[in-house]
Write a structure and sequence with these properties.
The complex is a heterodimer. By secondary structure, chain A is an all-alpha fold. Helices cover about 80% and strands about 0% of the residues of chain A. Chain A is globular and about 85 Å long. The longest helix of chain B is centred in the C-terminal third of the chain and has 18 residues. Classes of the chains: A mainly alpha, B alpha+beta.
């Protein structure tokens, strides 16, 4: 019951946050110089041509009115149509969101188990050569910029060896095909997000492993595997879940470099296009999705830590 | 060996055609060489001729195949509305789906396309005869009504046409028959057929307002179009040019990052990587199975010396800078040889109105030193603003280095690319500009050299030039026009505050399996019209 109340409170808070974010994004994008008409007309933007097009697109209305119209549309389930190519926003975003979710899910499926495994094992074998190598590798990989990692990967595996494709497509027809087209972007993204998860898992677990109840369990003769998985890990789950959630949230909007290098049709590139062409309804919709995804992941992480830790449930 | 005896013998077209026919009939290489040798030709020369004829035979177009083309931009602003096209990717895509009334050939001369013929009265009233029997992709026939709609919509500001300024002088656009259109201009313009051959004036169906798909008369039908992702074009079996196009399917995608685009080509993911820089061209040439397709065109970077500001209003300083351009070095070092030397005037040698009689201004440091001393700016810092990490910067640095040798102290200011065209270009006494190829001498001169143009880069005022511009525009006799444009090129060369060292080429990279590319200097990939001309070698 308590739990349900908490979820409800968080969802309401989330909706409020979304509203605030939409205002901030709208104001921010309005401050940017130029508008969609200038993006459409380019160099041939004469004042009268701009005025005419502005009227046709409804950009001559005052800003608050435009915002309220957009909000009213959204509340009735209509996110509007793109100013630039006059296509419904839903139709533009739909396939791109699916693509982004697909890539994010694949990356998560690779990165999260691997990161947890590495984190847990390096915590267990603290101070050993294995621990040090894992840590140094993780930190080195996160320190190399994604574009460098991706470009080197492409030149080596796509251009020279021809094992992989230089372009990623969200189509999966066979396991071999998927490996060919998706291995490089998934690995690049995984390297980028794994380091923090590995280190966080290790740190959280070490904190618990040092506590006296673990020492007690060890003295009682609990086997190491059971000690870590059954006794220690649940108490470390909170921070780990949060580290996972934070890193996964970047997979939706923060993968622009990988999308550009592998020319993958995802949501991040769409958002950048939208800002460049001052396509307000599209900018707003993308911002809402990124923000909502972030909040859902953080909420899931919190639920995860509450479920794993009974003490948090009775607060 | 004996080739010296026949220095001037070059295979005439008819000879090659003859040998080609013989080859086709089954004559062997050796037979032909023997035959030519017995006719008195050196063996070396004979084999050259046979080889070139065999190549021509191998170049007989083949039907079928699909290709994937990566162009340099891709965003939600991608469009198949001819009026709204904004970049080369749009042009390339639209030319696969639509045709224009005219098309521009290798010398930018307009040729009949959807218009079978065109005639004019004093370059003011134009009559276009529309081709019979042409069908749109949905089966409806092309008539004058479609043409009128396609052209007239540019004038409506609600269309948001990028070519509105070019359409406004078309005062009356009327259908005078089912297949005849009359266009009355506000003032004479002999280049109207050139204007109508540019991408924005491609012909769409009467009443079209929905551009989620393209319905045109072009060589391919639009199967799929997703802005910012890709478009898929499939062969139009009813295309009015019989036998064309050759390919079954073209998928066009955009890879804005140049290195990624080239990698996609070299890894075999795409067949064409459009628009690559000279720097990367070398990488293509060292890879086997890939080639660089060079389009010599009229694009240039110029040093802009404002006549309305100090120190650039000083004519001696202008002359010093013009003589200081090491054109040959810029050609080879900045553009890796993919450029031709220019002569401080904007009409390039591919243009039919290029004036070859104008003496080339050489790289002459001594003359530059003389003018610098006379100008009184020796050893004073002269700031030149240019765009950071661009070929304009490379050119500025070469100019700076040449200046050091004669006591000219050029201070190169590196400005960010963002906002360069609105905040830097022409806004300081000395800046660098970069001008894309334009379809006609008239458009180029009007935009960048006419006294009252917004983009009159160097604020140059010449009554004689303005007068010639209007007269040449109204002149329908090519010889007389050529003479006038020649004089205008001389005027710009001598008086204007513009230094143009080289015209650079447009480069596209492709697999050598793709055949049939020929340069048309309006833009890359055959002036964007590659789709109906290329084929894939099996």
């Amino acid at each position: 019951m308590l739990m349900l109340g908490m979820i409800l409170r968080r969802v309401c808070g989330g909706l409020l946050t979304l509203l605030v974010v939409s205002v901030v994004v709208f104001v921010g994008a309005s401050i940017l110089p130029g508008d969609a008409t200038e993006a459409i007309l380019g160099q041939s933007a004469s004042p009268e041509a701009v005025a005419g097009l502005r009227q046709a697109l409804g950009l001559d209305l005052p800003a608050p009115e435009r915002y309220l119209r957009w909000l009213a549309g959204l509340l009735t389930g209509d996110p509007g149509i793109s100013l630039i190519n006059r296509m419904p926003i839903g139709q533009l975003i739909g396939p791109r969101l699916t693509n982004s979710l697909f890539l994010a899910a694949l990356t998560a499926a690779v990165a999260v188990p691997l990161a947890l495994l590495l984190g847990v094992t390096s915590a267990i074998w603290r101070g050993t050569a294995y621990d040090r190598v894992t840590n140094i590798t993780a930190v080195s990989l996160v320190s190399v910029p994604e574009f460098l990692l991706a470009t080197i990967g492409v030149i080596l595996f796509a251009v020279q060896l021809r094992w992989a494709s230089a372009m990623a497509t969200p189509v999966v027809d066979s396991l071999g095909g998927a490996l060919r087209t998706l291995a490089l972007p998934v690995l690049t993204l995984s390297f980028g997000i794994m380091a923090q998860m590995v280190r966080m898992t290790r740190a959280a677990l070490l904190g618990v492993l040092d506590s006296s109840y673990i020492e007690m369990a060890r003295l009682k003769g609990v086997r190491p595997a059971r000690l870590v998985l059954r006794h220690a890990l649940p108490n470390a789950a909170g921070p780990i879940a949060n580290a996972v959630a934070l890193n996964l949230s970047s997979l939706l909007g923060g993968v622009i470099i990988v999308e550009v290098i592998f020319s993958y049709p995802g949501l991040a590139k769409l958002a950048v296009d939208a800002v460049e062409t001052r396509d307000m309804p599209l900018v707003q919709a993308c911002a809402m999705i990124f923000c909502a995804a972030f909040m859902i992941l953080v909420l899931a992480a919190d639920l995860c830590s509450i479920l794993s830790n009974p003490r948090l449930r009775v607060r | 060996m004996t080739t010296k005896r026949y220095p001037a013998i070059l295979p005439e077209f008819s000879d090659t055609a003859l040998i080609e026919t013989a080859l086709r009939r089954g004559a062997s290489r050796r037979q032909l060489i023997r035959w030519l040798s017995s006719a008195g030709m050196a063996t070396a020369m004979a084999s050259t001729i046979v080889a070139s004829a065999s190549r021509a035979l191998a170049q007989t177009p083949q039907r079928g195949g699909r290709i994937r083309v990566a162009s340099q931009t891709s965003s939600t602003a991608d469009t198949v509305d001819p009026a709204k096209q904004n970049n080369q990717t749009d042009y390339t895509r639209c030319f696969t789906f639509y045709n224009g009334l005219t098309r521009l050939d290798q010398s930018l001369t307009p040729q009949p396309e959807l218009a079978e013929s065109f005639a004019n009265e004093r370059a003011t009233v134009w009559t276009f005869k529309i081709r019979q029997g042409v069908k749109f992709h949905d089966g409806s026939p092309l008539t004058a009504v479609d043409v009128v709609y396609s052209l007239a919509r540019h004038k409506d500001p609600k269309t948001g046409s990028a070519a509105r300024a070019l359409a406004l002088p078309m005062e009356e656009i009327t259908a005078t028959g089912t297949h005849e259109v009359r266009i009355a201009l506000a003032s004479p313009n002999a280049d109207l057929p050139v204007v109508l051959g540019t991408p924005h004036f491609l012909i769409i169906k009467d009443g079209t307002t929905d551009f989620s798909k393209a319905v045109g008369t072009g060589p391919y039908r639009c199967q799929e179009f997703m802005p910012g992702v890709k478009s898929i074009a499939v062969r139009n079996p009813d295309y009015w040019k019989s036998g064309r196009p050759y390919l079954d399917e073209i998928e066009l995608i955009g890879i804005p990052d140049e290195t990624a685009r080239l990698n996609a080509l070299l890894s075999g993911d795409v067949h064409v990587a459009a628009s690559i820089s000279p720097r990367l061209a070398r990488r293509v040439q060292t890879a086997s199975g890939y080639a660089v397709f060079e389009t010599k065109a009229g694009g240039y970077n110029d040093v802009v010396m404002r006549k309305d500001a100090d120190p650039s209003r000083n004519p001696d300083l202008v002359l010093a800078l013009k003589h200081l351009q090491d054109r040959e070095q810029m050609r080879s070092a900045v553009f890796q040889g993919y450029a031709v030397v220019a002569n401080d005037q904007p009409i390039d040698p591919t243009n039919r109105f290029f004036f070859p009689g104008l003496a080339q201004r050489p790289f002459d440091p001594e003359k530059a030193r003389f003018h610098l001393q006379r100008s009184g700016f020796a050893n004073t810092p002269i700031p030149i603003h240019t765009m950071a990490s661009s070929t304009m910067l490379d050119q500025a640095v070469l100019l700076q280095q040449a200046g050091q040798g004669i006591g000219m102290n050029i201070d190169v200011k590196r400005m960010p690319a963002d906002g360069y065209w609105s905040n830097v270009w022409m806004k300081f006494p000395l800046t660098f500009g970069s001008i894309n190829p334009r379809p006609s001498a008239d458009v180029l001169f009007t935009l960048f050299f006419k006294s009252d143009s917004n983009w009159n880069e160097s604020a140059w005022r010449s009554e004689r030039f303005d007068q010639l511009l209007v007269t040449a525009r109204a002149e329908t006799d090519d010889a007389r026009r050529r003479q006038m444009y020649g004089e205008m090129q001389t005027l710009v060369h001598n008086e204007c505050g513009i230094g143009i060292p080289v015209f650079f080429s447009i480069l596209d990279a492709h697999t050598t399996k793709l055949k049939g590319l020929r340069a048309i200097p309006t833009g890359g990939l055959m002036g964007y019209s590659y789709s109906e001309n290329v084929w894939l070698e099996s």
